[in-house]
C-alpha cells in the first residue's frame, strides 16, 4: 500500500481527531460494564463508559427480569465458590447501597429437581453448600410456599428474588459515571503509557486503564481475540397472568424458569441454543418454553397460550462456565514465544505471564450475570486501584484470565 502523505486529508483528519481523556475507560454498557464503572467511580476515578448500542443494557442485560438464585450443591468447587460469593455480593448491593431504588423483588425461589444432579441432591440428606438458607422441601411444602401445586420434592431458597437487569444497570451508573452510547470501540493501542481507544464516532479516548466488558464481542478487539468464548442464544417471554398463575408467589425454576407476576406480567425463559446466531425471537422457542413449564405445572397456563412479547439475546459462555475477570495477560506475545519452542512441555514454566499493562476484563458471565457481574466489577476496581482484594482474593484468583494460559499456549504448539 502506498503511504499517504502527512498533508493528505485523511492523515490530517486522523491527527485532528478529538481526544477524550479519563482515568478508566469501560467498554460495554451491560451489567458487567456498569458494575465495573460504578465500582471505579465510587473510588473517585474519572470513568467513561462507552456502549456500542444507542442505549445501555441493550443486549444480554436487557431482559425485563432476571433471577438471582443461589447455585445449589453439596460439593465444593470453583464454580460453587465463585457463584456463592457473587450471590452474597449482589444481594448485599441490592439490599444495601441500592435498597432505596427498590429494585429487588425478594420473592424467594423454588428449584425443582429438573436434572439428574438435582434429583440426586434432593433425595439425599447431605448438607448443602449454598450461600444462603436453602431447604429441601416436600411437594406439599413447595406448593404452600409457591402458592401453586407442585408435585415433586424441591429446594426452597428464601433469599432468592428477581430484578430488572436494565434498571440495575441504570442505577449503577447513575452517579459519577460519564456514559457515551452509540460508541463502539474499534481499536486499541498502547502508547506512552496510555491506552488510545478509537471509537466509532471518530473520537479517541486516552486512558490509563481500559476495562473490557463487551461480552462475546470483546474478541473482535485484538487484545482479547484469543479468549475462548461462545455466544449461546436464549429467549425470554412475557406472559399475561391467568387466574391460576396469579397465585404464584415465588420464582419457579425447572429446565426453565418463571417469575411471579410483576407489573401485570410474568417473565419465563430461557433455553440454551448453541451454534444458533438468529437474533429474532422464534415462535418455536416460545412454544418450547411454555411446554417445559406445562410439564411441571400443567394448569398454570392453558395449552395454546401466546406470549405478550418474546425477546432473544445471547449469553457469553466460557470453557469452564466461569467469567474472565481481572488483569488481561498479553496472550498474543506469550503465544508467539511458545511457538518458538520445539516442544510443548513445561510451557507454563518457560513462557512468563506478561500482563497487558492497564488492560482488564470482566466478561463471559454466562447465565448467572446477576450473581457474578457486581462482584466482578468490584474485583476489577480493587485491582486497578491497587487495593487489597481482602475477602474477594480467593474468587479473584479463580476468575483470573491467567487460568487460560496453558490452553492458549498448548494450542499454539499443537
Ligand atoms: C435469555 C437469557 C436469560 C438470562 N437470564 C438470567 C437470569 O435470570 N439471571 C442471571 O443472573 N443472568 C441471566 N442471564 C445472563 C445475563 O443476562 C448475562 O450474564 C449478563 O447480562 C451479562 O452482562 P454483560 O454486561 O457481560 O453482557 P451484555 O449485557 O451483553 O453487555 C455487553 C455490552 O457490550 C456492548 N459492546 C459490544 N462490543 C462493544 C464495543 N466494541 N464497544 C463498546 N461496547 C460494546 C454490547 O452492545 C453490550 O451492550 C440471561 C441471559 C440470557 C441470554
Q: How would you describe this structure in keywords?
A:
8-stranded mixed β-sheet; 2 domains; FAD/NAD(P)-binding domain; disordered N terminus; alpha/beta; 12 helices; globular; D-Amino Acid Oxidase, Chain A, domain 2; 414 residues; single chain; binds flavin-adenine dinucleotide
Brief account:
The protein is α/β, with parallel strands linked by helices. It has helices spanning 9-16, 31-42, 78-95, 116-123, 139-146, 165-173, 283-296, 331-339, 347-350, 369-384, 393-399, 405-413, and strands spanning 19-27, 47-50, 66-68, 109-111, 134-137, 154-157, 161-163, 177-180, 185-191, 194-199, 204-212, 229-239, 251-253, 257-258, 266-273, 309-318, 324-329, 355-363.
Give a structural overview.
- Helix content is 29%, strand content 25%.
- With 414 residues, the protein is α/β, with parallel strands linked by helices.
- It has two domains: 16-60 and 176-228 and 320-413, FAD/NAD(P)-binding domain; 65-163 and 230-318, D-Amino Acid Oxidase, subunit A, domain 2 (D-Amino Acid Oxidase, Chain A, domain 2).
- The strands form three sheets. Strands 1, 2, 8, 9, 10, 11, 17 and 18 form an eight-stranded mixed sheet that branches.
- Helix 2 (31-42) packs parallel to helix 6 and helix 2 runs parallel beside helix 10.
- The structure holds flavin-adenine dinucleotide (FAD).
- Flavin-adenine dinucleotide (FAD) binds next to helix 2, strand 3, strand 12, strand 15 and strand 16.
- Would you identify the CATH H-level superfamily of the largest domain? FAD/NAD(P)-binding domain
What is the total tally of β strands? Answer: 18
Helix/strand order = HEHEEHEHEHEEHEEEEEEEEHEEHHEHHH
Distance between the termini: 34 Å
Ligands in the model, by name, code or SMILES, are: flavin-adenine dinucleotide
The portion of residues forming beta strands comes to 25-35%
CATH structural class of the largest domain: Alpha Beta
Low-confidence stretches: 1-14
* CATH fold annotation of the largest domain: FAD/NAD(P)-binding domain
Q: Count of helical segments?
A: 12
